[in-house]
Amino acid sequence: MTRRPIDVQIDAGGAGDEDETPGTDPERFKEALARWASGVAVVAVRDPDDGRIYATTVSSLGSVSARPPRIVFSLGPGAQVLPFLKEDRIFVVNILAASQDSLASRFTDSFPVGPSPFPQQGPPVIDGAHAVLACVVDRVVPVDNCRLVVGLVQKTRSANDSSPLLYYDRNYRELAD
């Protein structure tokens, strides 16, 4: 089989655009990415000084490498958890199960309200999570108005009896065969 180049015809804007920022219109960009289905996770870190847990919901999680195992996710500069994600700090990525959509919603808020799903001591693991990645912050990389957090995965745990929570078209969804 011979490979042929793909000729892509996309209107990417150009002369006459009001916005001087390179790339597409931000609203069009958001609309296009709303069509990308992703998993949903709660990233949590325990402050070593007072033991408080800071957490936020992310759907931008991705794999960087398998050897060594590294992940990446992006956070806005105002994310409550960001100041606690310093190099060599331990954090947990709780990949949520389909039944945990209320937790996903709770941790999109800067000041989440409700009972804590985290244990009093130890890593901030959510009971019943679809999968858990215990990580160490490898680096935090500033990119325009966000931060990419790269984590070196130390331990993993997966649940075989749950289905993952998905985010698609601005709503939480469940996986269907």
Offer a quick outline of the entry.
The protein is mainly β and 177 residues long. 8% of the residues lie in helices and 37% in strands.
Explain how this protein is built.
The protein has 177 residues and is mainly beta. The protein has a seven-stranded antiparallel β-sheet. The protein has a three-stranded antiparallel β-sheet with strand order 1-9-10, with no helix packed on it. The chain is built from two helices and ten strands; from the N terminus they run αββββββαββββ. β2 and β3 (53-58) form a beta hairpin. It is globular. The protein has a single domain (36-169), classed as Roll (Pnp Oxidase, Chain A), CATH 2.30.110.10.
Calculate Rg over CA atoms. Answer: 18 Å
Q: Based on DSSP secondary structure assignment, what is the total number of beta strands?
A: 10
How many structural units, i.e. domains?
A: 1
- The CATH architecture comes to Roll
Structural class: mainly beta
For the largest beta-sheet, the strand count, sense and barrel status come to: 7 strands, antiparallel
